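pinging the channel bc i need a second pair of eyes. not urgent but kinda urgent?? the chain im working w is below, pasted from the shared doc
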Amino acid sequence: MFSGGEPLLREDIFKLARFAKEQGIRVVLSTNGSLITMSVAKRINDIGFEEVGISLDGIAANNDRFRGKKGAYQAALRGIRNCVSLGRRVSF
């Protein structure tokens, strides 16, 4: 499981995940979801992450307050939708 802080901030996250997958290791991502644009979701899908866990800390206002960033909840929802649209398993 690649988790954080926020693993998608690592420049080498996809290189590490691909290497792990090549070794026969089941790869899973735990993220706040806010950085999962459609292009990131495609990379997650291409590598074959078996699951993407996205942290939600309540409804919008609570999540944004907990994350310290206005719009974090909506960004996480976009990340969820992007992964699901490509058939990735998402838990939250």
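so The longest strand covers residues 28-31. and The CA atoms of residues 80 and 90 lie 7 Å apart. — does that match what u expected or am i reading it wrong
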